[in-house]
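REQUEST ID: PR-0412
SUBMITTED BY: lab tech R.K.
PRIORITY: routine
TASK: structure prediction, single protein chain
INPUT:
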Amino acid sequence: MRPVPESGFADVQSAVGTYRGRLADTSLQLSERNVSWLRQQLSEKRWHWFAAFDDSCAVGGALVDGGFFATAFVWVFDRRTKELVEDEAVVIPSPLLSVSSYPTVGTVATVSLPRYQLQFVREQTALTVSGTFGDVTLSLSFEPTDEQAVTAICPVPERKGGVNITQKEPNVPVRGRVRTKKAAGKEFSIDGTGFLDYSHGLLGRETRWDWAFLSGETRTDRPVACNLVEMFNEGVENVIWEDGEPRSVGAAQVVEPDVVGADWQVSTACGTVAVSLTPEGVRSQDVNVGIVQSRYHQPLGTWEGTIAGEKCAGVGVTETHLTRW
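STATUS: complete
OUTPUT:
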């Protein structure tokens, strides 16, 4: 896999491909590529998503700048009682939330409201996610490595000038604390596995994907992971990791079961991945604010199967998502 370029564009043409490392500047050169101001306001989107798992709990969330509107959410799942103990979400005007075009340094994403104050900050080798979000207080420190990060620069054929830059980091060591006011004021101490997803794109009016983001180990304790998406980014971001080494794979299928709570099936056409995710819980959200509508369904749980011919198992999420913006 090639190292990440200094820019996502060469002579205003997007450098479509899958790269090793993080792109420091994800600016989309919209003015230089003659994308109108109105189109920028309507179609440019940025978000930063995270999740962390250990034996006792899972926690996740995202800050999403959708143009005229923004959304933010945080959830906390007790893996011992199988209960979603917190699920806080807000839909707000975009100026109240910020996601940077520079995801490798400083404050990458932030929201600041009376009850919702959350920051994602990159300092040296760590990303911290900290603050208070509704009834949740959290302080998490992710420690990703440059070698494991993958940047995909993807075409968006349904939008003139469309492009999406996404950066994925699985199997990230994470430590910290999460406290909730509900469930008798539970506090979780986390020492486990993290997932990071940063994306910045000029997207189509309707965006849909089926997604799986999984981390785990083989039977011989070798780390493995996969990031697979269907119906989005033309599969450019489809990657597996073996011992931290990323490798592109082909088209993927992420199949939601017909029966609620049954296993999701995740596979690649080339046969490199064939796993099943068994949901422990699920986080769902529907948003309708006129011109912006979305449906989001994300099970979280354990998985097992084969990656690159080896039997393995771990934790992660699958997701089905449809947005009109």
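NOTES: The mean pLDDT is 93.
REVIEWED BY: pending
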